[in-house]
Amino acid sequence: MSAILNKRRAGILLHITSLPGSGAVGDLGQEAYGFVRFLHDTGITVWQTLPLGITHADLSPYQCLSAHAGNPELISVDWLCKQGWLRLAELSTESKSAFDYPKSYLLTKAFHGFLVHADEGYKNDFADFCQAKAFWLDDFALFMTLREEFKQQCWNQWPEHFKNRELKALQEARRRLKPQIDCIKFQQYVFFRQWLELKAYATQHGVLLFGDIPIFVSYDSADVWANRDVFKLDDDGEMLVVAGVPPDYFSATGQRWGNPHFNWHYLQKTSFHWWIDRLQTQLELFDILRIDHFRGLEAAWEIPATEETAINGQWVKAPGKALLSAIKVALGDIPLVAEDLGIITPEVEVLRDEFNLPGMKILQFAFGDGSDNPYLPSNYVSNCVAYTGTHDNDTTLGWSENLTTEEQDKIYDYLGNPQTSIHCALIHAALGSVANLAVIPMQDILELGSEHRMNTPGTTTGNWTWRFHWDQVTPERSDRLKHLIRLFNRQV
User: Fold this and answer.
1) Active site residue 73
2) pLDDT band at 1, cuts 50/70/90?
3) Is the alpha carbon torsion for 375, 296, 382, 46 positive or negative?
4) How far apart are CA 364 and CA 288, in angstroms?
5) Which of 82, 117, 282, 306 is most buried, most CB within 10 Å of its CB?
């Protein structure tokens, strides 16, 4: 077990986009630094976010255009202004504020400003970044530029010579589109620079950053376009099977995610280099990493691409032990958490435990079965992460308001009939459990209802847009949180 995960800690789950601010989404500006100070002041030592990648139109951070690249929408415009690379006064008019422009426009203007105003130190740093990240950045920047040229079409709809990565066509495109490609690289440079500055600030304040790795990647991504051998595709680059999960707690028809499955034979033959490179990028950004859908490393649900739902799929084995062994050899005992929710078999538990990875315990799942329910705190081991709920659950207040009287009585019976609301009692139970790490979604800290839910699995609209406001963080809530952290010995 990683030493980081072998201490009693408390965390809050809040994605960067959910931070307050004047922009369209939360970003890596001063509100992020303010949130770190809030965590520090209350004794919280872990900040868990969702994946940081570039989303598609549905905004899901679990369907990104790259497994490595950060989302430029998270870049702080104020930071660019402080560097002198973006001059908002030159953009503002009587009828239009600078912030009325799309972020992409502002980032392009900042790149031009960088070329004119940046000193040699920054320019050398940018060149060093491009060289160090070339193993993914070169293909990504070209992919994004071509995607723009072809009006956001998926790469399998591009002209054949680009779709199939014919060398001459790619060389000509890199020459012809060099300014746009360099601008994309600049955006990634700025993202990584801003994130690492925030990470250093969090470290100074005793806060660890906890990231999330979706096990699968989007078909419409630089990764699949540039690494077709890594995935199960036919000779024309099309998917025969797609990823998802069978019917479960979240959906009666299962979830058809639509991601391509891995070609594990090729990955194993190449010593899992693609996976190890992916993890190295995330370890630069985070102190702790969660492998989403860990269950898929033992066996994954393969759905025929022609099926509209996930019902008619099958479990297909994956070489999880070989992968995790290769990761351990290459990277050491890194702090990994296994998202082991859903249909979990003894084989999945053996794989998780063989590598001593903490699994997840969700209190909203704890009260529907008997006393052997693994999500009941009395059945926890210390090597786990306890949650009231996750980004895929309803808020705990919204969940509790939909319980029957009988269900409420059952919960109160287990918790000792506390004289408090169920959602507050579950926060108390998570923090008071033996789990080394307890993580509470920010919505539950703020006692918010279902309208503040982050995501509803199986739906594609109305998700991922929730944001909080500082006036919701009342002194009473902060003091209560600080009290619970100390009461249950979770300050580090």
Assistant:
1) no
2) low
3) negative
4) 24
5) 282
Pairing label, strands 241-245, 299-304: antiparallel
Q: Which of 292, 340, 394, 444 is catalytic?
A: 292
In whole angstroms, what is the distance from residue 219 CA to residue 240 CA? 12
Bin 132: left if φ > 0, else alpha if -120 < ψ < 50, else beta: alpha
d(CA 443, CA 399): 12
CA distance 4 to 436: 10
What is the gyration radius of the CA atoms in the chain, in angstroms? 23
Proportion of the chain above pLDDT 90, given as a percent: 90
The answer to whether 263 and 309 are in contact (CB under 8 A) is no
353 has catalytic annotation? no
According to CATH, the superfamily of the domain at 3-487 is: Glycosidases (3.20.20.80)
pLDDT value, residue 100: 76
The pLDDT value recorded for residue 176 is: 98
Confidence of residue 373 (pLDDT cuts 50, 70, 90): very high
Cβ proximity of 366 and 318 under 8 Å: no
Whether 445 shows a pLDDT value over 90: the answer reads yes
From 27, 31, 392, 444, active-site residue: 392
Q: Which long-range contacts does 21-28 make (Cβ < 8 Å, 24+ apart)?
A: 22/99, 23/77, 23/99, 23/103, 24/73, 24/103, 25/73, 25/74, 25/467, 26/74, 26/467, 27/73, 27/74, 27/75, 27/76, 27/77, 28/74, 28/75, 28/76, 28/79, 28/191, 28/194, 28/195, 28/198
Contact 79/29 with Cβ under 8 angstroms?
yes
Q: What is the mean pLDDT of residues 306-316?
A: 94
**pLDDT of the residue at 460:** 83
3-class secondary structure, 208: strand
Report the SS3 class of residue 349: helix
Predicted pLDDT of residue 97:
66
Kindly state the tokens that stand for 155: 């790469």
DSSP annotation string for 29-79:
SHHHHHHHHHHHHHT--EEE----S-B-TT--TTSBS-SS---GGGS-HHH
Share of the chain above pLDDT 70, in %: 98
User: Given 31, 139, 339, 394, which residue is catalytic?
Assistant: 339
292 included as an active-site residue: yes
State residue 316 phi and psi, 5-degree precision: -125, 130
Distance of CA 317 to the CA centre of its chain: 25
pLDDT for 95 equals 56
Please measure the distance between the N-terminal and C-terminal CA atoms of the chain and give it in whole angstroms.
18
